[in-house]
Design goal:
Blueprint lengths: L1 E3 L1 E3 L2 E3 L6 E6 L4 E7 L3 H18 L4 H17 L1 H12 L3 H19 L1 H4 L3 E7 L2 E9 L2 E5 L7 H12 L3 E5 L6 H12 L7 E3 L4 H9 L3 E7 L2 H13 L3 E5 L4 E5 L5 H13 L9 E7 L1 H16 L19 H16 L3 E4 L19 E4 L6 H4 L6 E7 L2 H10 L2 E2 L1 E5 L3 H10 L4 E4 L15 E2 L2 E2 L6 H7 L1 E5 L1
Parallel strand pairs: 1-5, 8-9, 8-11, 9-10, 11-12, 13-14, 13-19, 14-17, 16-17, 19-20
Antiparallel strand pairs: 2-3, 4-5, 6-7, 7-23, 12-22, 15-16, 18-21
Helix pairs in contact: 2-4, 2-7, 3-4, 3-7, 4-6, 6-16, 10-11
Bound molecules: nicotinamide-adenine-dinucleotide.
The site of nicotinamide-adenine-dinucleotide has 27 residues, from helix 8 and helix 9.
């Protein structure tokens, strides 16, 4: 069975621990690979080499650092088919979906090519008689990234291209569920000319993260994952004097106003709720329907559209979405659907009944699920389900919809569908979430903005990538 090792100093190094994680093909349910989990000495080796590389790397002109990213971008484009195949084989999402996520990651690499412009600093002439003053931004040192399973290529690319062009060296701990594409992209960065030790990938699990947080040589940590872990990583990092941004889970609401075009909304929500099996932190998981007249029409249309979706393996281009990532995750989603049913919600479309084709019986499949008459006290509403499940809450007014969103513990993204400019303005002004869509179901900021939620969806002050990413990976000095 293929064993995935660590990638340190520009080469694969065999780990020293006997502990290994299992990597599955979620479409068949079979374990196809294993991944070495790092020992303390494996991590130490990565940090030592990163720290050593920092001395020279941080002094290189920023334009020279950025130049490597131009080449890196070309190599990702050249290898995009192979990379996409690696993502789908371990994550289970369909090919086009995986390819799209790679493109979003690539856009951050393109942003990183222009970072020297953002490192120019600020200058004030004659702040006192014959005294000038200026501010510059300098790198932090060795910084670390910890990433989730759902975007194994894109989310690491949210982090290290910026950190590296800003002059830092990086230690990445990807998800142990699907690390191969992450490793391959790191190799491409070395092919683009990165000096030894500037980027290092150490595979591991929660224990590796603990070791990383305790390591005093690491100055900052970017984390993306579930809220429970984000909160604890943030607390632990900050207590140990590290700078930290920890992005957590989500429960993203789409408010559908009575004046919206229902056919178009249903079409958009089908993709936003069920694409990637709902395993996106920006997936729409709750539709808030304003007014009963709209609700009846909407539910009938979403029932029809959901029943028309094709679920199956990633290698069939006709499929709309694939399996979820593990057997355990599938059971968790099923249990939350059952709890909604037990709590009195109405299952309009039941994904638990989905039967995959004969060759995929062992796969971690669930069909699309639509749950009407959801109440905010239900466990299924309070929890992030992170599966192909759309819950419906019915309200009477826009103000009720906004209050509902503001009471929710999460605040990643949300959107409103309306034809009325005033409604759009009130919604975007009053709602407590970090990323807002107006007639746009997945308001993921472009690479030139920054990405981040509010409330339990982000711990820390700065959002990820874009201008906030540059602020996070540098510190100001005023002369
Ligand atoms: P996860 O929290 O289980 O794991 C994320 C990372 O943390 C992995 O590298 C994992 O090895 C590590 N980890 C797991 N348990 C840990 C622990 N107890 N202590 C320290 N480290 C630990 O998340 P996941 O299941 O891989 O990813 C799905 C979650 O990520 C969802 O909640 C989703 O909403 C969230 N997510 C958020 C964003 C965002 O931008 N806000 C983006 C993508 C995913």
């Amino acid at each position: 069975m293929k064993l995935i090792e660590h990638f340190v100093g520009g080469k694969i190094i065999p780990g020293t621990s006997d502990k290994k994680g299992k990597v599955f093909n979620p479409a068949t349910g079979e374990q196809e690979k294993e991944v070495r989990l790092a020992s303390k000495s494996d991590l130490d080796q990565a940090v030592v080499i990163a720290k050593k590389a920092f001395d020279e790397w941080s002094l290189k002109p920023s334009l020279q650092r950025a130049r490597i990213m131009f080449k890196f971008k070309e190599l990702i484009e050249k290898n995009s088919d192979e990379l996409t195949q690696l993502i789908v084989a371990e994550h289970g999402k369909v090919y086009e979906d995986a390819k799209g996520s790679l493109t979003r990651g690539l856009e951050v690499v393109e942003f990183a090519c222009g970072i020297p412009h953002l490192l120019k600093g600020e200058f004030s002439e004659n702040v006192g008689t014959n005294v000038d003053s200026w501010s510059i931004r300098q790198p932090l040192g060795v910084v670390a990234g910890i990433t989730p399973f759902n975007f194994p290529a894109m989310i690491p690319l949210w982090m290290y291209p910026l950190a590296i062009v800003c002059g830092n060296c990086f230690v990445l701990k990807p998800s142990e569920k699907d690390p191969t594409s992450t490793m391959f992209i790191a190799e491409l960065l070395y092919e683009a000319g990165l000096p030894e030790g500037v980027l290092n990938v150490v595979n591991g699990n929660d224990k590796t993260v603990q070791l990383l947080l305790e390591d005093k040589r690491i100055s900052a940590v970017s984390f993306v994952g579930s809220t429970r872990v984000a909160r604890s990583v943030y607390t632990s990092a900050v207590n140990q004097g590290k700078r930290c941004q920890a992005l957590g889970g989500a429960k993203n609401h789409a408010v559908v106003m009575p004046d919206s075009d229902v056919d178009s909304v249903v079409n958009q929500l089908i993709g936003a709720a069920f694409g990637s099996s709902g395993q996106r932190c920006m997936a729409i998981s709750v539709a808030v329907l304003v007014g009963d007249a709209l609700a009846e029409k909407f539910i009938e249309k979403i029932r029809l559209a959901s029943n028309g979706l094709r679920v199956g393996a990633f290698n069939n281009a006709d499929n709309d979405f694939g399996p979820v990532v593990t057997r355990e995750h599938k059971s968790k989603i099923e249990a939350l659907i059952t709890s909604a049913e037990d709590d009195g919600a109405e299952i309009v479309v039941d994904g638990r009944l989905f039967k995959p084709s004969d060759d995929l019986q062992g796969g971690f499949f669930l069909g699309p699920t639509v749950i009407d008459k959801t109440k905010i006290w239900m466990e299924s509403y309070k929890e992030e389900i992170f599966g192909p499940v759309l819950q419906i809450v019915r309200v009477e007014t826009l103000s009720e919809a906004i209050q509902l969103i503001n009471k929710n513990a999460y605040g990643n993204g949300c959107c409103v569908f309306t034809g009325d400019g005033n409604t759009a303005r009130i919604f975007s002004e009053e709602v407590w979430a970090g990323m807002i869509g107006i007639n746009v179901p997945l308001p993921v900021p472009a690479a030139t903005q920054s990405f981040g939620g509010w409330k339990d969806s982000l711990f820390g002050d700065l959002h990820i990538y874009g201008p906030d990413g540059v602020r996070f990976y540098t510190r100001r000095k005023t002369i």
